[in-house]
Automatic annotation (TrEMBL):
Its EC number is 5.1.3.15. The gene is LOC115744627. This is glucose-6-phosphate 1-epimerase. The keyword Isomerase applies. It comes from the Eukaryota. One of its GO terms (biological process) is carbohydrate metabolic process. It catalyses: alpha-D-glucose 6-phosphate = beta-D-glucose 6-phosphate. InterPro entries: Aldose_1/G6P_1-epimerase, G6P_1-epimerase, Gal_mutarotase_sf_dom, GH-type_carb-bd. Substrate binds at residues 73, 91, 96.
Amino acid sequence: MSAADKVAPPPLPPAELCTGVHGLPKVLLRESRGSSAEVYLYGGQVTSWKNDHGEELLFVSSKAIFKPPKAIRGGIPICFPQFANHGSLEQHGFARNRFWKIDNDPAPLPTNSTSKAYVDLIFKPSDEDLKIWPHSFEFRLRVALGPGGDLMLTSRIRNTDAKPFTFTFAYHTYFSVSDISEVRVEGLETLDYLDNLQNKERFTEQGDALTFESEVDKVYLSTPTKIAILDHEKKRTFVIRKDGLPDAVVWNPWDKKAKAMADFGDDEYKHMLCVEPASIEKPITLKPGEEWRGRQELSAVPSSYCSGQLDPRKVLQGC
Ligand SMILES: O=P(O)(O)OC[C@H]1O[C@@H](O)[C@H](O)[C@@H](O)[C@@H]1O
């Protein structure tokens, strides 16, 4: 067969439904320049985001249990309708351990990207869910990869009930980092936070970038729309852009708590950091028919992208 006779393989679809761990359905997203993402219908949870070199950017525990009723440990769990134990529901609400559906007829969403690598999911409460949280809603989640490999999550929650309801929310994003001791977070300095390790008491952060040398579990309040995680060893900076989500949780369990979690490796705390765009301090109330939107957009750029050094000011201002 001559070279001319060879037929190029058909391009891989930008969004494909396939089977993941333990036969759980997942959607694989592929952007034409090589970046990719995976979304499990269980939890509507992103479990992988890779750049165009195939490097994984999110942390998923090697001990993660991909089986209901436990939520998957890592990626981007959705905390709804309750963040953590801020209410009477189970920890982080129930959206993260329910099966979502593919939404084949999503309400239009303005998009400034031509990428076809996206999926729309929908979660509506079952009769059982309504017994524990008696409010009907439609939760639409779009997960999209931008042409440069950015990962975008847009949540739209509509009150389809006859009475108002109130909720808290977080994108519980687990970033993969080379070494937690080498990581700095920019954008949260000087802000007030509630310290979950000290009875949710309110403190004010010092003027320096955050660095990590022990367990941290803080809810930063009224945060800027842009936060950066600088990974010195990897020479990579994650930039989080967010909308509709004033708070940001920063969590790392460190060694003792890591050992106490069955679905988390003893030393894995060294290689992850959760920075979670959220709405916690001021819960959101929706009247019947009203819709709320919350969005997070993640990019991973080489630190050298901003003038050859780690210069957080330039990252935060955009280069
Ligand atoms: O083990 P879970 O339920 O996934 O929660 C993990 C952590 O999630 C964080 O968002 C909370 O601030 C922590 O308090 C909590 O420990």
